[in-house]
Amino acid sequence: MLPFQSNHAIDELLVSYLLGEATEEQQRSALKWISASAENERYFQEFQQIWEKSRELAANSSVDVNAAWERMREKLEKGKNGRKEERKMGRREDGKVVSLAGWWRRAAAILAIVLTGAVSWTIYRQWTNAGWMELASQEATLLQLLPDSSKITLNKGATIEYPKQFARNKRRIKLKGEAFFDVKRKPEQPFEVMVNKLTVTVLGTSFNIRETDSATIVIVESGTVQVSDGNQSIVLNAGEQLIAGNTKKSWTKVQQTDKLYQYYRTRTFNCDRTPLWKLVEVLNEAYDSNIVITNPAIRELPITTVFENQPLEEVLSIISQTLDITITRKDDQIYVE
Fold first, then answer.
1. CB burial of residue 308 (10 Å; 0-12, 13-18, 19+)
2. Which residue range(s) make up the domain with 75?
3. Of 117, 140, 138, 135, whose CA–CA distance to 19 is shortest?
4. Which residues belong to any copy of the Protein FecR C-terminal domain (predicted)?
5. Which among 9, 117, 283, 286 is least surrounded, fewest beta carbons within 10 Å?
6. CB-facing half-sphere around the CA of 336: CA atoms within 13 A
């Protein structure tokens, strides 16, 4: 396992990973380094929060993109034995120059400003008067380590609130949106998630919570959780799912048949006889696309396959061939029939 280190090699690897330019091998190396220790996870979380803030600020920046990128390159290349090697922007090991076009160059430039101290990542975390901290994932997933070493992966657009230090007899956080929880076991200090008038209570387990306009969905991956709303309560075991309706207050407990819910943290779409409508719903969210099923007769068609971080066009092509259906594109809309 790699030890914790903040040096130019690690920083550059993380930049490539967040820019989406890392090769499969580099992605594996980045994930291995992040999971090697709690210190590495904390470092990556701060790094990722800086990245998220940089995306938010990018639209308002008037920075010289090339100059900022070069300044970041210089910062990342300092320090090892006091040497600084000359490199051209985006030069690969085979000598070819890769340019960062458009939005990516702009985002990288803003990230460079942040890394050089113009913007602190702490402005992304806000204290409330009650002593709670708020963290929002904006347009990308976000990994967060809580004070008790529990891990939370926020899907894009999700928000959590949590205290800097948990109470002695309870660990309570608030959630809006969707997140996956890997909770550190502490029987004497139950872990509670407050979401949409529900309370999800655990001792130590992993589970996913998704809040939508019509329902709150809790999926247990390991261990056991208890869900309650003050009027009713239900226990979920590993492999079970609860769909709690927001209006009719109807609760439905079913077996979770696929792992599609993991897509935002694994970058894998794992379908096991998954109905087409459900996969389309997730693809629209993951790729920020507008896919519409125009033929009601194919909505429930089951599909069993695995997509691993593939381009949307490739995913749609495989779906079309597998289910023998037609997929067409017109402007920004994609029609499935």
1. exposed
2. 8-124
3. 140
4. 269-336
5. 117
6. 29
